[in-house]
Automatic annotation (TrEMBL):
A single MF term (Gene Ontology): hydrolase activity
Keyword Calcium part of the UniProt annotation: no
Lineage start: Bacteria, Bacillati, Bacillota, Bacilli, Lactobacillales
InterPro entries hit by this protein: AB_hydrolase_fold, CarbesteraseB, Carboxylesterase_B_AS, Type-B_Carboxylest/Lipase
Protein name from the UniProt record: Carboxylic ester hydrolase
Keywords: Hydrolase
Species name: Companilactobacillus nantensis DSM 16982
Length: 466
């Protein structure tokens, strides 16, 4: 099988793996401190470099994160980390493309550790781009650009569109898939002003939607708080730090905090407008993209190990800022247990945003929106992805067929846009006026529930606000 592809950023030799070809660390852009991505071009290095064969057989530089500060790290980390990995069945084919954006609270992750490995070695092209994290990608800094991480993601999508023919992808059949911060990124991308997203046919959001789109003032104050905690006079001074120095500054400020919502896409009236919900609906009406939106039944179940005092006094404001009391009043009764409080946190973080986003999209005539409530692995955050990735030998024998059926449903959605499983004659119900949701339970895939929660329209879309 051919293992070479010639792209707009160079010619690359991949490696065979399970009858697929992997290309690792392929550059798609340049990353400069607090500046939006610049297009990568081999031409800048001369004619010889354009035609030179590059071996794409090792992971590329990964985005800066706390892991980078460990001694003797075998993985290379740095600010200029804009590369992507590709797993393709055949560079001469024409297969559906899935672009995966990884999760990690916008502060950790990278394509060196794929979250959706279940997409590898299928009849699809699986692409995982890196994007900058934390302050590097999402900080609002005096003298810097906004939505730097979002610009990385946009450039990666553009690269895939421009080079699909080179790695065996069908440019007219692209799905964006993401877990947690990856899903939140996709929600923001689809709500953005970029016309590139009109080329996307399908999205799959697992435990994330649009809840981390935040106002500019909140984003500025997060950067300022980090500076204050490190006795740094101005956010502009962050330009002068080394990569490790900037990461250390962030680590010190976030230490002992649950900072899952501190970073994310920003309403800057450039890439994202204040009327982003209208932009999202307009894109759906224009392109008719199809959606799968998933949330776990008890997303933050592992928080039960924390004390109720810590949950109320530290975790709640860390996750939601001044919106914490808003969600608490709306989603809890006057008397509640610690388990109730944990369930409320998971609902406010994930289930509520998922249902509201699905409802917004479903209001559009002929919209195709599919939802599930994942009960696998106790309904925990990312449980459905863990279920899909788990080796069959690790699953109860009664659960293995259902895992395969779910995998088939998702793959059929990627291929055709219709999640249907032929062997059991099951078609995933639409999330429409009936608000039907498939309950993903290891031993009962076809269970369907009616979601009867009716949340107040006054609740904020933006989860974290200060």
């Amino acid at each position: 099988m051919k293992k070479i592809m010639k792209t707009t950023t160079g010619t690359y030799h991949g490696v065979m793996d399970h009858n697929h070809v992997d290309f690792l660390g392929v550059p798609f852009g340049y990353g400069r401190r607090f500046k939006r991505a610049e297009e990568f071009s081999m031409a800048k290095f001369g004619t010889n470099e354009v035609n030179k064969m590059h071996y794409a057989v090792h992971n590329g530089v990964q985005p800066m994160q706390n892991e980078a500060l460990k001694q003797n790290n075998k993985i290379s980390f740095g600010e200029n980390c804009l590369n992507l990995d590709i797993c393709t069945p055949d560079v001469d084919g024409k297969f559906p493309i899935v672009i995966e954006f990884y999760g990690g609270g916008f502060v950790q992750g990278g394509n060196y550790s794929k979250q959706m490995s279940w997409l590898d070695h299928q009849s699809v092209v699986h692409v995982v781009p890196n994007y900058r994290l934390g302050l590097f990608g999402w900080g609002v800094v005096d003298g810097g650009d906004t939505n730097v991480g979002l610009s990385d993601q946009l450039m990666a999508i553009q690269w895939v569109i421009d080079n699909a023919n080179s790695f065996g992808g069908d440019v007219d059949n692209i799905t964006l898939a993401g877990l947690s911060a990856g899903a939140k990124s996709i929600g923001a991308l689809m709500s953005s002003n970029s016309h590139i997203l009109d080329r996307i046919q399908k999205i799959m959001l697992f435990s994330g939607g649009v809840q981390t789109i935040r106002d500019l003032e909140t984003a500025k104050r997060v950067s300022e708080m980090i500076c204050q905690d490190n006795h740094i006079k101005s956010t502009k001074d962050l330009f002068n730090l080394t990569d490790d120095g900037l990461q250390l500054v962030q680590q010190r400020a976030l230490n002992n905090h649950t900072a899952t919502n501190w970073f994310g896409p920003v309403i800057d009236d450039d890439l994202i407008s204040n009327n982003w919900t209208e932009k999202l609906v307009q894109r759906l009406k224009r392109t008719h993209f199809k959606s799968i939106i998933s949330a776990g039944s008890n997303e933050l179940e592992n928080y039960k190990s924390m004390s109720i005092d810590h949950l109320e006094n530290d975790v709640l404001p860390d996750l939601f800022g001044k919106n914490g009391e808003v969600f608490k009043q709306a989603l809890l009764t006057k008397t509640y247990s610690k388990n109730d409080f944990v369930k409320m946190l998971g609902t406010a973080m994930y289930r509520l945003p998922a249902r509201r986003l699905a409802g917004l999209l479903a209001e559009v005539d002929d919209a195709e929106v599919y939802c599930n409530s994942a009960k696998v692995f106790e309904g925990q955050h990312g449980g459905i992805i863990r279920y899909l990735n788990a080796p069959l030998a690790e699953l109860n024998i009664d659960y293995r067929k259902n895992r395969q059926y779910l995998l088939n449903l998702l793959l059929e959605f990627i291929v055709s846009g219709k999640p249907y499983e032929e062997e059991i004659k099951y078609e995933w119900p639409l999330f429409d006026d009936d608000r039907l949701v498939m309950e993903v339970d290891p031993d009962d895939l076809k269970s369907v529930s009616v979601i009867d929660q009716r949340y107040s329209a006054d609740l904020p879309w933006q989860s974290y606000k200060i």
